[in-house]
Fold this sequence. Notes:
Blueprint: H1 2-8, H2 12-40, H3 49-74, H4 79-103, H5 108-131, H6 141-169, H7 174-195, H8 213-218, H9 220-234, H10 236-265, H11 272-304, H12 307-327, H13 331-359, H14 362-390, H15 398-417, H16 427-439
Helix pairs in contact: 2-5, 2-6, 2-7, 3-5, 3-9, 3-14, 4-5, 4-7, 5-14, 6-7, 6-11, 6-13, 9-10, 9-14, 9-16, 10-11, 10-13, 10-14, 10-15, 11-13, 12-13, 12-15
Amino acid sequence: xxxxxxxxxxxxxxxxxxxxxxxxxxADGMFTVGLATLFFFxxxxxTTAGKVAAAFAVLLLPFTIVGPWAGVFLDRWRRxxxxxxxxxxxVVLTLVVALLMIxxxxxxxxxxxxxxxxxxxxxxxxxxxxxxxxxxxxxxxxTANSVSPTLGSVASFVGGGVGAxxxxxxxxxxxxxAVALVVAAALQATAATLALRLGRDQxxxxxxxxxxxxxxxxxxxxxxxxxxxxxxARRTPAQALAIMAWHRLLYGVVLxxxxxxxRNLLNDPADLSKGIATFATIVAATGAGFFVAVxxxxxxxxxxxxxxxxxxxxxxxxxLSQVLLVINVRLPEVIAGAVxxxxxxxxxxIAVDTIVQRDTADAYRGRAFALYDVLYNAAFVGxxxxxxxALPDTGWSRGTFAALAAAYLAGAVLYWRAxxxxxxxxxxxxxxxxxxxxxx
Length: 440
């Protein structure tokens, strides 16, 4: 791994793209921590599994809606410009949210603008993922996909911690919540400025469409359908997206359970401060698992035969994390399970990103990651629906966690039996068939 990191660091484009990601995701953490506290740990919200599910749905449905549009534009627009303009849009939205919180307090407008800001964030993350192969050679993608998203997650955790700290040191009042938002806006503006250091055409796409935006909007459905057909024909990218959606569905249920366990089982539901502290500990443990994944994945995955087999191992590790919680639900077991599941989730994501990037042609890569976002967030919405039915208000039942363990194990078996090599796809023939399907 050290050798690969030494090979990555001299790549100027990689360093600059990584810097944009780190600053941008640090701002995301600052912005998101306020929403999490508002939705899940305020006295009037998230006291039951149903209310947590509703909050999840409100937060994630707009993300899912943004996904279909992202890929079409990422395959047409210069991705460098997306990073610049997208961050500037977030600056405006974030400052408006801060102004509203100071002047009128939290209301429907704050919720709408916050969700719009989070939606732009997903668009930017898709652009960052689609841009990575343009600044990193194929043989270093696995290491780059280990480093970039994981350090981005760390930056998000740091931003969230700083945002929480700013809120704690400020006096109570409407201005307290707005301070972190103003700092987040400053970081978003910094990310936009840093993106300008990348070449205007450096991040692709290689052959941007000359079609006007109005026409692009009219062919969104066809563009996504074409991308999906290509991924299915190519085989391995579609399989990787499917197993990641399954993984995120199960992970979403566990995340919901963690919120309820922190608030209603391990602490007095009326003591919100202790509930927040417990959940913060669980999140920190998950982050530790993420960090281990970035160190272990580039070393172990190649020795096992590549990302396909590594995903199987990750699903088996996730199975063990749920078996641990079947046995007991004391704080030590919950924290240990969070570390193990965090490792499995991040390690599998690194492998999935590598498969999708490696086995998808650049002309389809933007749509591939847009579909990735759709499945990722739709899986969490599905998790909210399942969790609302399956989870008690305490967040824990032995039967539910046994079912989660069995579901992870089933995913490991099915993915192990799936083909590990991509199918050959003639791009011109595929596009011709897609055009015929669109006109039929």
